[in-house]
Design a protein that fits this description.
Elements (H helix, E strand, L loop, with lengths): L3 E8 L2 E8 L3 E10 L5 E13 L2 E11 L5 E11 L5 E11 L4 E10 L4 E12 L2 E10 L5 E13 L9 E6 L3 E4 L4 E12 L2 E12 L6 E14 L2 E11 L4 E5 L3 E3 L14
Antiparallel strand pairs: 1-2, 2-3, 3-4, 4-5, 5-6, 6-7, 7-8, 8-9, 9-10, 10-11, 11-12, 11-13, 12-14, 13-14, 14-15, 15-16, 16-17, 17-18, 17-19
Length: 271
């Protein structure tokens, strides 16, 4: 018969409680973290674990964080440090929030003290009609705010009512800053937005989303703005697109270059 012992470890203002066999390997375990007020703040479950010094190596990790919003985190393998509370997860890492946001990657670090998750691997973030991919990310576990570091690609379904939808694809060198509370996304460095043959380039682009519909409400592009459709190109220092009005406003010495074909072609010019 296997003997189990209940261990309680305190660190970082939380209390951990878990069952451990007298040997250093055990199966079917749970780690529970509590705040100073005795409220459960997180838990970690796994199929098996191996204790090596301060580290607990786990398989089939299933963790939950309890705050303003419950967050679930899963991975094939993981290591938690009993002294610092830091967790390292690998293989099929998935974070899912109550509101439907999801982050997937192959490797992730979770720092409870800073309330941050970080990775330098390829990451995919999905939310409503938006899918974002990049190399590396820094985020709060609830994904309310996140930074996607480099080589960013975002696909936005701009008309979900249409079968197949209309896809707006935006790329940038990065970083991409996501603020779900403010319903805002900021693209930095070499921004390119493409939809149905139209191309918009700028140094920076800010997207604002409607709280109810989750669709783009406004897009503000600044710095070396160019808009290309066919052979026609428009240049300016700023472009503001208002989705509700279906209106694009250019400012900062706008210049329009048109390719004229045929005797009946004409071009309206002006600011």
């Amino acid at each position: 018969m296997k003997k189990t012992v209940l261990l309680v470890i305190c660190f970082l203002g939380t209390t951990l409680a878990f069952a451990e066999e007298s040997a250093q390997q055990f199966e079917g375990f749970t780690l529970d973290g509590y705040s100073d007020g005795g409220r459960k703040s997180w838990d970690v479950k796994g199929d098996s674990a191996n204790i090596e010094g301060s580290n607990i190596n786990m398989t089939n990790v299933n963790a939950n964080s309890y705050g303003d919003e419950k967050v679930n985190l899963k991975a094939k393998t993981g290591t938690v440090n009993k002294d610092t509370g830091k967790m390292h997860l690998e293989k099929d890492v998935v974070i899912t929030t109550e509101t439907g946001s999801q982050l997937k990657t192959d490797e992730l670090n979770w720092e409870r003290e800073k309330d941050l998750v970080t990775t330098d691997k390829k990451v995919t973030l999905t939310r409503d009609e938006i899918v974002a991919e990049a190399m590396g990310a820094i985020a709060h576990p609830n994904l309310k705010t996140a930074q996607m570091n480099e080589d960013v690609t975002v696909k936005v379904k701009t008309d979900p009512k249409v079968p197949g939808g209309r896809i707006l694809t935006i790329t940038c060198d990065g970083p991409l800053e996501v603020d779900q509370v403010g319903q805002k996304a900021v693209f930095n460095h070499n921004v390119l937005a493409v939809q149905e043959g139209r191309e918009l380039r700028s140094d920076k682009a800010e997207l604002y989303f409607d709280t109810q519909t989750k669709q783009i409400k406004q897009m503000i592009c600044t710095g070396h703005v160019s808009i290309k459709q066919g052979e026609n190109v428009t240049y300016s220092e700023m472009a503001i697109y208002r989705a509700g009005e279906q209106r694009l406003t250019l400012s900062g010495q706008p210049k329009l270059i048109l390719e004229i074909n045929g005797e009946n072609s004409f071009a309206p010019l002006g600011n």
